[in-house]
């Protein structure tokens, strides 16, 4: 037998610590998935909970629990709505502080199959605009050619010696 060096300290079990690093890891039109890291269990087995509250009404849309790990999955949520997620752990001595996450509703991509509100371009209008553009380009080309011709004549006149 041996002699005990120090006194034997007994600590009473307590409530669990709050969940940590909680994040929405997947959010789709079908639902959402949340993962957290568990805190100290208080010396007792703990259960993890997530409450899903619709915004702005704060009505409970889902209540999910997990005995093994703080990983939650909820389906059948309205993807256009935003939610507050309340996450906590509980054991026989009580519950941890709550962790709140906020999600934003996901809108599906807009589909434009109806009438357009932009300027309608008929084939005739397009042809007229193209013709006017071609005429403007031709006019600019003619003016540039005339200017070069006039400029070259003037330069040639300046280079000739005066007649006596």
TrEMBL record:
Transmembrane region(s): 124-147
Keyword Hydrolase attributed: no
Keyword field contains Transmembrane: yes
Alphabetical UniProt keywords: Membrane, Transmembrane, Transmembrane helix
InterPro entries: FN3_dom, FN3_sf
Designated name of the protein: Sidestep protein
Organism: Operophtera brumata
């Amino acid at each position: 037998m041996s002699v005990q060096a120090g006194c034997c300290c007994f600590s009473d079990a307590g409530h669990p610590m709050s969940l940590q690093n909680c994040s929405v890891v997947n959010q789709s039109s079908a639902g959402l998935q949340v993962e957290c890291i568990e805190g100290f269990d208080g010396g007792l087995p703990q259960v993890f909970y997530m409450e899903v509250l619709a915004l702005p009404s704060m009505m409970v849309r889902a209540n999910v629990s997990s005995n093994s790990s703080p990983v939650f999955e909820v389906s059948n949520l309205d993807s256009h709505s935003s939610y507050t997620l309340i996450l906590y752990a509980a054991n026989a001595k009580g519950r941890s502080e709550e962790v709140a996450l906020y999600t934003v509703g996901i809108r599906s991509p807009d589909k434009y199959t109806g009438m357009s509100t932009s300027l309608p371009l008929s084939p005739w209008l397009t042809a007229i605009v193209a013709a006017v553009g071609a005429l403007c380009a031709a006019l600019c080309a003619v003016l540039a050619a005339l200017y070069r011709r006039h400029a070259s004549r003037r330069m040639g006149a300046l280079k000739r010696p005066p007649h006596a």
